[in-house]
Amino acid sequence: MTVPQPKLADVAAAAGVSPTTVSRVLNDRGYLSQKTKDAVHAAMAELGYRPNAIARSLQQRSSRLVGIIFPTVAHPFYGQMAEALETRLAGAGYKVLLCDSAGRPDRERRHLDMLLANQVDGIITGAHSQVVGDYPGLRAPVVTIDRPKGHDFPDISCDNRTVMRELTRGVIARGARRILHLTSSRDPQAPRLLGHAEAMAEARLEPAVLRPEPSRGWWPDPEQIDPVLDRAWEAAAAPEAVMCSNDLLAAAVLSWARRRGLRVPRDLQVTGFDGSAASRIFYPELSTVVQPYGAMAREAVAAILAAVDGEPLPAGTRELPATIDWRETTRPA
Asked: Which InterPro entries is this protein grouped with (predicted)?
């Protein structure tokens, strides 16, 4: 026999108050004595009453939900970013619907359809496609993470260009002159590429940029990475350092160096970019840019919550300073 779910009226009767008072306790509206609040919560606990979240969201015109769309949560950057966003949103009383688009526009569109059907209060996305920017009649405020191009939404990122310029200067100061920049970006105007090129030009060094063929997944494929590095190393002037546009590429370089019998950093210096917690378990410990995950999450959530309160979304890109953690894969300056 199925036991009927208790209703709001049952809680009111058990607490000795009106249904309106129970509703006010649930929505934290109006002045109520602590004695009344305690009586209502005690009655809810005794009856096993659970508020109807959908009904409350309709009444409040807020779902208290925020959607997050990332191209993958397996990548350390997106995984740590998702954790930082969820923690910040939970502290503000919001729940998260986390969507992994696998880098596929069709999946991203389906996720958007689902999020809007659930009347989310806002969307935070780091997806690489133009699906969100082209979505017709998008009614929820949108903030992007590290995706400044191809849309009019506010974007939160670290100051990629500046910190990559400083990282390159640091590698040059550590004795490297023949520097290979390994990147997954196909955009020649990508900020990290521009910052690297600026520092190389300052030192009157010729930049060398290599773009391996895209891997089948988000993890670098040795079948794509190793031939590129083999050709560079066997050239007349082998690189003295390999600077990577993310930590996963750097991990692939370290793996290749071990297989080739190279000593890092004596034979080859290596740097990454992202600085997620996972980068600390690489061996040797990776010298890398540490992105400001907490500050980026704070800025993105603040923009979404301000929009929920009726304030306009900020325009343009908000670039936050990042730091460089010099570890074991580079020599002392």
From this structure: HTH_LacI, LacI/GalR-like_sensor, Lambda_DNA-bd_dom_sf, Peripla_BP_I
